[in-house]
Amino acid sequence: MEQNIIVRVANSGDTGYAQTITDEMESSAKARGTGIAKRSPEYVAKKMEEGKAVIALLPDGTWVGFCYIEAWGHDSFVANSGLIVSPPFRKSGVAKLIKQTIFNLSREKYPTSKIFGLTTGLAVMKINSDLGYEPVTYSELTDDEEFWAGCKSCVNYEVLMSKDRKNCFCTAMLYDPADHYEPEETSSDFKTKSKIYERFMKLKQHKLLRMFRKKENGGAAIKPKSFFHHLFHL
Q1: What is the pLDDT of residues 172-217, one digit of tens each?
Q2: Which InterPro entries match (predicted)?
Q3: 3-class DSSP state for residue 81?
Q4: Under CATH, what is the fold of the domain 6-232?
Q5: Cα 193 to Cα 10, 196, 199, 203, distances in angstroms
């Protein structure tokens, strides 16, 4: 990673980057062919003003990356959402530093809250595992209707609803401050199972698409029977 990248808590002086950030969020989701809960520049700017976001910049002001905090269920759950890195700086290690900083900020602002995330990427799963997150079922996430309403702008929303919000393309991960493994343990576990997770995520996408298309066509969905079926409610 470039040593001159500055990663810090965002503030009201950073709101001018909001449009650039939301534009990159949208174009990145389209390029991956996956969904992301869409956020407006005004929403991102508000997070900056509230001190609930982390931004990465070069000394000359070039925008590098961003992530923000959302609290749900009367602050019992916190999500570190919208992680995005400008294309020229991807695979530089800055995403990990942003995630570490937003995680620390979340623990500072919401010390008793469970921290969770949804991701379609193996790289983000690894970063989360290094912080102490564990893969969980959707039933262990917040039941706050406002959180799930945020998924309506995602291209995969119909798939989510067809599964009664029990599963989708994203993998859920959770850090529970009251009951958690140490980061060394979750990181080691991820390294051991990374190939399995990679194959499973591809299989999951294939099966969800197949079942959704069958449902659209009036056919009966075939439920896979495996360990991951019980873990992730496929």
Answers
A1: 999 999 988 688 888 888 778 777 777 766 666 666 566 656 666 6
A2: Acyl_CoA_acyltransferase
A3: strand
A4: Aminopeptidase (3.40.630)
A5: 35, 5, 10, 15
